[in-house]
Amino acid sequence: MSISFRGGFYIGLALALCIGLYLIWLGRPEIQVRRHTENFFHAIEHKDWLAVANFIGSDYHDQWGDDRARVVERMREGFRYVRAPRIVASNPRVQVETRRAVWISKIVLYSADDDAMDLLDERVNSLATPFELEWHRLSGKPWDWKLARVSNSAFEIPVDIY
Predict the structure, then answer these.
(1) Rounded Cα–Cα distance for residues 44 and 137 (Å)
(2) Is the pLDDT reported for residue 125 higher than 70?
(3) Residue 56, strand partner residues
(4) 89 closest CA partner among 33, 24, 23, 148
(5) Helix or strand or coil: residue 133?
(6) What percent of the chain has pLDDT over 90?
């Protein structure tokens, strides 16, 4: 069976149209923020602190008074004792405004170490309120999102820890 030039042209055109529609869908702010959040969590799980820092914007600040450098330092310190960490978000939702999006979900942290799991269950996994990650779009590029703020009204970091 041979394909004529016209048939090949239409197949190529249909394929290009499908790829174009997929790229338009992929460029939607909600999809980008979900992917950025997933990749941010994977970087934390792999303890790739350079990648974690690249997700965080230079204007980052949170309810605990941390800036970009301090939050990366705190994560590095905190996750040093967590063996094989896993971050699981349940039913995340994204609220999108023009150049701002807020990812909202309850987060559960897992570890291969039982002692660390006890602490995680007590401090993080037992929280009823969801975490909110605020992302800002820095340019017209659909993939140019940076983390600007993290908050959870019920999560407290004891002063004596850091």
Answers:
(1) 21
(2) yes
(3) 147
(4) 33
(5) strand
(6) 59
CA atoms within 13 A on the CB side of 130: 15
Which fold is adopted by the domain 29-151?
Answer: Nuclear Transport Factor 2; Chain: A, (3.10.450)
On whether the CB atoms of residues 23 and 111 are closer than 8 A, the answer is no
| Nearest-angstrom CA–CA distance, 14 and 156 | 53
Give the chain's end-to-end CA distance (angstroms, integer).
71
**Tens digit of each residue's pLDDT (9 = 90 or more) over 89-116:** 999 999 999 899 999 999 999 988 888 8
Distances (CA, A) of 67 to 49, 120, 132: 15, 23, 16
Residue 87 corresponds to which tokens in the numbers above? 């971050």
Q: What is the secondary structure of 28-87 as a DSSP string? A: SHHHHHHHHHHHHHHHHHTT-HHHHHHHB-TT---TTS--HHHHHHHHHHHHTT-SS-EE
Pair type for strands 100-110 and 131-137: antiparallel
Half-sphere CA count of 81, side-chain side, radius 13 A: 10
Rounded to two decimals, the pTM is: 0.83
Sorted by where each begins, the domain ranges of the chain are: 29-151
